[in-house]
Amino acid sequence: MRVTSADVARESGVSRTTVSYVLNAKAGVVITEATRRRVLEAASRLGYTPSAAARALRSGRSDLVLCVLPDWTVGPVLDTLIDHVTTSLAEHGLSVLVHISRGSRPLAELWRAVTPCAVLGLVPFAAADARAMTRSGIVVVGSALDEDPHPETFVVPQTSIGRLQVEHLVARGHRALAYAAPADDRLVAFADRRLAGVRAECARLGLPEPRVTTVDLTVESAAAAVRGWRDDAVPVTAVAAYNDEVALAVLAGATAAGLVVPDDLAVIGVDDIPVARLASPPLTTVWQAIDAQAEYLAASVLAALDPSLEPPVRPDDVFHVLERAST
């Protein structure tokens, strides 16, 4: 059972009011040092933890930021983003609770239960959810994977990543391209947008439609994809992969199929994960400014909570190509 302030009062032999004054450092109330020490020792002995909800009611605001994620896989990039946001907000006395939206539980049940001061979303919230949170005095900060007309929404347009990949490959003389898609359905929000960027850039440059193949993270799957691309009437000479992990699978598949990268097949990934530079050959990739994105999101939360702070300036260099030997 949860230890309450009544338990602390009984243990220390004082009233609940006195316990409340001591534990909340109530100003303007005279409490002897002996009584204060007795209450604190009793609370420590019993393992008493104040209710976050009650603390929020007393202060008018909690110190909790709820970060809501869709049902995505948590890989190196997302993990780094969350870590940076958590560190930045912790410097201002705020704690971050990460929630991955799985199942059918309404978001309203969650934020009403944990009483956050702010809710940060990595995709836009439903209008009804955003409205309900705002009416309850909760700061709402959102971001998007597409261009968004609202200036307060932070945007990381995924189509631009696909366009950058094609632009880089075409600059190196490639015209027959393939797209290596991920096998995990939870990545569809990113994969579809990046593929749309690849297709749009190919169309703009007058190139054939890219060959799209789903690649599991196995040598067998990647080798089969590579052989299919090379056996086409117009053999594929370059691959834009969904991310670095899929690109590394393609590199392994190319080796298994007896091809030389980049002479026979060029490969570009996305994310610049640490092992990308250790690949053979080192992997060309689209670097994302995760630290700058995280700082912007954290600063947006702080500015929304404190009107005296200036809203942050959006970072300009969100992503660019890091050229290595694979292209």
Write structural notes for this entry:
The structure is a single chain. α1 packs across α3 (33-46), α8 (158-171) packs across α9 (188-204) and α10 packs across α11. The strands form three sheets. A six-stranded mixed β-sheet has the order 8-7-9-10-11-12, with helices on both faces. Strands 2-1-3-4 form a four-stranded parallel β-sheet, sandwiched between helices. A two-stranded parallel sheet has the order 5-6. The radius of gyration is 26 Å and the shape is elongated. 43% of the residues lie in helices and 16% in strands. By secondary structure, it is α/β, with parallel strands linked by helices.
Topology:
Layout: H1 5-12, H2 16-23, H3 33-46, H4 52-59, E1 64-69, H5 76-90, E2 95-100, H6 107-114, E3 118-121, H7 127-135, E4 139-141, E5 143-144, E6 154-155, H8 158-171, E7 177-182, H9 188-204, E8 211-215, H10 219-230, E9 238-241, H11 244-256, E10 266-270, E11 284-288, H12 290-305, E12 319-322
Parallel strand pairs: 1-2, 1-3, 3-4, 5-6, 7-8, 7-9, 9-10, 10-11
Antiparallel strand pairs: 11-12
